[in-house]
Amino acid sequence: MYNHILIPTDGSKLSESAAVAGVKLAKTLSAKVTGFYAPPPATPIEYKGLLPSYIDPKEHAKAIEKATRKYLEVIDRAAKAAGARCATGSATSDYPADAIVAAAKRYGCDLIFIASHGRRGFRTSSLGTQTQKVLAQTKVPVLMFR
Question: Pairing between strand 45-48 and 51-54?
């Protein structure tokens, strides 16, 4: 049915739960998993709360790399625990949904297993902005995890 599942993450708790569930599905289907994260580019401005603060872009880049490793490690660990084949990838982007759609195409994935919302999830909606954009843009089937 599905041979290669893309599991995007943003590091949120729901995204972590989706990753574990996506890996279980992959194991059941004997499919390969590709974990994916689309971090923002490093900038000299960082927002903590409402106010911007200056951060050295090199330090910001290091923080982004650390977060990328941390978020993808969740998927990699889940795959190892389940005995599923797994690779990971990332692409810096201001537009995570675009990066997810491009990654599915680039890696040859035939299913995107995505959380319904992430860090900026709506309390009044079960569908996050990035998930909506992925659904609208991709031709690859999408399975949304709630």
Answer: antiparallel
Alpha-carbon span 22 to 8, nearest angstrom: 10
Q: What are phi and psi of 91, to 5 degrees?
A: -150, 125
End-to-end CA distance of the chain: 22
8 A C-beta contact, residue 34 and residue 86:
yes
* pLDDT tens figures, 118-138: 655 444 344 578 999 999 999
| Span 9-145 CATH architecture | 3-Layer(aba) Sandwich (3.40)
The model's pLDDT over 6-25, given as tens digits with 9 standing for 90+, comes to: 999 999 999 999 999 999 99
Burial level of 107, CB count in 10 A (0-12/13-18/19+)? Answer: middle
Domains of the chain, residue spans = 9-145
pTM given for the model:
0.90
